[in-house]
């Protein structure tokens, strides 16, 4: 591509056509573990996802490059096969939600939300012919066999927040609005879809943690620090693909817009926020109260599950083809990103 002909995104205040990623992998000292069930869940979920016409055309090809099975195996390394398989079904379904529902504009989002949430609240009595409804009922009926009532409740509630925030995101996108950083952070904590995945940590490890424990400010802060690291680092990793589509719902344009920074400075700014989120996660653990031996032991498993998500998501981001195509390994070592040219017209998600 000739640099003279590239249309710089209006938000970009720099002519630079490349940027350097922050070194988040080195900043994270948690042990990376991978479940031995990885291959098996990958095969089983694929059969489930491709059943009938659930996923067709390009979406099928994208499935292989996604490597969701690897993410699941890294984020829930201690789960038994049955639980791991369900976590993988959910994560894969979450990535493909807009392919599984017909349209994710604002009306499409609320239609999808109604089908999904009714399928979760009434898994045995609500019937929708939509494929997203069938798939939701299928995995949730399996989940409720062993998930504690609290984990089920948290899963449904946080998934509800996800849909509300995605609807808001679709409105922002339609109006081409770039929110301020604070509003963006609040919204992003829900659009990420991380919170239901935290409920799956409880499910995957057969935990039954009381509401008062899960609602404790320190436990909430740990979940929030993890969510922030996963989502903000994701904004850095996905920025190149998103800027090529003219999508501004990403922390980097938000920071450039608000702080008046050039691209590299904004990337560094968000990178420092990511490092601070990891430090915050470690620091907050010093303030945990004790609830007695059994609860403390279960809570430690849950917190380890959050740490698995931090380290797992960071490494997976270079293994999946979602952000760096087939160059992930190379990017992981060089950390240099060449900006993609802007596409002629912004394509909808």
From TrEMBL:
UniProt-listed InterPro entries: Isoprenoid_synthase_dom_sf, Terpene_cyclase-like_2
Pfam entry (one): Terpene_syn_C_2
GO biological process, one term: isoprenoid biosynthetic process
Keywords: Lyase, Magnesium, Metal-binding
Enzyme class (EC, first level): lyase
Cofactor(s) needed by this chain: Mg(2+)
Family of the protein in this entry: Belongs to the terpene synthase family.
Name of the molecule in the record: Terpene synthase
Species in which this protein is naturally found: Coprinopsis marcescibilis
């Amino acid at each position: 591509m000739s640099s003279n002909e590239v249309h710089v995104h209006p938000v970009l205040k720099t002519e630079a056509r490349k940027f350097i990623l922050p070194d988040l992998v080195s900043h994270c000292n948690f042990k990376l573990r991978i479940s031995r069930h990885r291959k098996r869940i990958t095969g089983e979920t694929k059969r489930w996802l491709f059943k009938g016409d659930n996923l067709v055309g390009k979406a099928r090809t994208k499935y292989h490059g996604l490597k969701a099975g690897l993410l699941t195996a890294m984020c829930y390394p201690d789960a038994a096969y049955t639980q791991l398989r369900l976590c993988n079904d959910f994560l894969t379904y979450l990535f493909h939600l807009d392919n599984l529902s017909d349209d994710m504009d604002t009306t499409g989002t609320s239609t999808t939300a109604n089908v999904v949430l009714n399928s979760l609240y009434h898994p045995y009595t609500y019937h929708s012919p939509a494929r997203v409804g069938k798939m939701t009922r299928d995995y949730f009926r399996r989940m409720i066999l062993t998930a504690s009532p609290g984990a089920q409740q948290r899963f449904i509630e946080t998934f509800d927040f996800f849909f509300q925030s995605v609807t808001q995101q679709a409105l922002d996108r339609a109006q081409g609005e770039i929110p301020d950083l604070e509003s963006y952070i609040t919204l992003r904590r829900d659009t990420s879809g991380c919170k239901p995945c935290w409920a799956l940590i409880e499910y995957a490890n057969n935990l039954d943690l009381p509401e008062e424990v899960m609602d404790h400010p320190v436990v909430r802060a740990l979940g929030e620090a993890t969510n922030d690291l996963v989502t903000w680092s994701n904004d850095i990793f996905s920025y190149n693909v998103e800027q090529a589509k003219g999508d501004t719902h990403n922390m980097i344009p938000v920071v450039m817009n608000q702080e008046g920074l050039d691209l590299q400075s904004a990337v560094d700014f968000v990178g420092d926020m990511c490092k601070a989120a990891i430090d915050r996660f470690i620091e907050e653990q010093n303030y945990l109260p004790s609830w007695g031996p059994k609860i403390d032991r279960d809570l430690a498993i849950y917190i380890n599950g959050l740490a698995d998500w931090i380290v797992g998501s960071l490494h997976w981001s270079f293994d999946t083809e979602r952000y760096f195509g087939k160059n992930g390994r190379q990017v992981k070592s060089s950390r240099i990103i060449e900006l993609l040219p802007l596409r002629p017209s912004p394509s909808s998600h």
